[in-house]
Design goal:
The chain is α+β, with helices and mostly antiparallel strands and 190 residues long. Helices cover 39% and strands 27% of the residues. The longest helix has 18 residues. This is Replication-relaxation. Keywords: Plasmid.
Length: 190
């Protein structure tokens, strides 16, 4: 339940993968037994989040997650699992920096470190491509402000076409990036 509180929500397959619940049937049985503490919504599969009773049971101060953002949060959790559940995983963290007297601010979907590299996660499901380009420009500025600290932008998007366009902008702005698609991780958690 603490993991669900930390990540806000998880799909059945993500929970099955994370807690090594061998079969779908076993995962569904475990989730059914926890049902007083969980709510779920059906997307491509059931997505679980803590109910009010579940949040009270573990002493969580968080509110119920926004249901219209569940798909985005599930995709963000794909990256969490793909990178081995980083211990310093932080979601929706603001980043502020100054360059030449000008203050910039950027809220990344998640941030963590990997072998002394600071990783910033951006999940792109329905974002306008021009917004993605603006973000990449901001990341260039942030990476410059970090100086010698190595940084990596991890962009997770839905199609190969979007991946290629984002990759070209990252090259254009000289932003160290790894671009993944849903297809890249399609069978990773099954």
């Amino acid at each position: 339940m603490y993991t669900l509180d930390k990540l806000e929500c998880m799909s059945r397959s993500q929970l099955q993968y994370l807690f090594q619940l061998k079969s779908v049937r076993n995962a569904n049985r475990v989730l059914y037994n926890m049902s007083p503490f969980l709510n779920h919504k059906r997307l491509h599969e059931n997505v679980y989040y803590l109910s009010k009773k579940g949040r009270q049971h573990i002493g969580s101060e968080k509110n119920k997650p926004s249901l219209n953002q569940l798909e985005h949060k599930v995709r963000r959790n794909d990256i969490y699992l793909y990178y081995g559940c980083p211990k310093d995983w932080k979601i929706e963290r603001p980043n502020e920096w100054r360059i030449k007297g000008e203050t910039h601010k950027l809220i990344c979907d998640a941030r963590f470190s990997l072998h002394s590299i600071v990783c910033f996660v951006e999940v792109d499901l329905k974002q306008k491509m021009l917004e993605n380009k603006k973000k990449i420009r901001l990341y260039r500025s942030l990476f410059q402000a970090l100086g010698e600290q190595q940084a990596l932008l991890i962009f997770y998007t839905i199609t190969q076409v979007r991946k290629e366009r984002i990759l070209s902008w990252c090259k254009e702005y000289k932003v160290n990036a790894e671009i993944l698609t849903i297809e890249d991780l399609e069978n990773y958690f099954l």
